[in-house]
Amino acid sequence: xxxxxxxxxxxxxxxxxxxxxxxxxxxxxxxxxxxxxxxxxxxxxxxxxxxxxxxxxxxxxxxxxxxxxxxxxxxxxxxxxxxxxxxxxxxxxxxxxxxxxxxxxxxxxxxxxxxxxxxxxxxxxxxxxxxxxxxxxxxxxxxxxxxxxxxxxxxxxxxxxxxxxxxxxxxxxxxxxxxxxxxxxxxxxxxxxxxxxxxxxxxxxxxxxxxxxxxxxxxxxxxxxxxxxxxxxxxxxxxxxxxxxxxxxxxxxxxxxxxxxxxxxxxxxxxxxxxxxxxxxxxxxxxx
Length: 288
Known about the structure:
Layout: H1 4-14, H2 16-25, E1 32-36, H3 42-49, E2 52-53, E3 60-63, H4 72-75, E4 79-81, E5 100-103, H5 110-116, E6 123-128, H6 131-143, E7 150-154, H7 160-163, E8 169-175, H8 196-213, E9 217-227, H9 236-245, E10 249-252, E11 262-263, E12 266-269, H10 271-274, E13 279-286
Parallel strand pairs: 5-6, 5-8, 6-7, 8-9
Antiparallel strand pairs: 1-3, 1-4, 2-3, 9-13, 10-13, 11-12, 12-13
Helix pairs in contact: 1-2, 8-9
């Protein structure tokens, strides 16, 4: 049930045994997954919804099936739909509260509002190419009571340096456009809509975005780069290529209590490990 080129690609990258485990996991039904916005009510919401704690995210709840969006907790903004792996992104930025943050590829806004939840006097500037997607971000921020912390702007992320001056941002998230191979369990049609050439063309787009946004980052500032793919060309190879062409940046080693997802200072999660989306997170720092 997978195209031959993708089978070969993952066997080349992960070895036959692990690739087979990944393939088999894609036939396991996707879990329902949410982030609890008020950690002090985690236990109460866990019991009321019959959910279980996420192994990966300290504020995540999961169920084998269920409709979290139909609960009063969701309507009150105490829950937001977000995969466990996606919940790991905002904490890597170590947000203190007063920062100016850029979310370069923000829609639908799950990570935007997660970052905004840490802010006091700071703001997140959330970019997307399409008005209807910016509306989704605004709707998300409104429901969670974070509208005053989020500013949306219609802009191509590869043009950021042409619009924002140097030293505009303390921290930047590039949740890059990618092949989405890590989402196949939820979106099976992905495997039929891609081919090998896509990875190299996406890598070029991802590097264009990083090269643009990095020009607006203050010295000592950090960029978190994330994707929902498990293909090296879009992940480790992008970070390596960026560092080679930007000697004023260095990689920041990330860590996590689940050591099996920590790979060479990055968080790299494949779908079979915790039956989540496949995901990749890396971090870069502009040298002071």
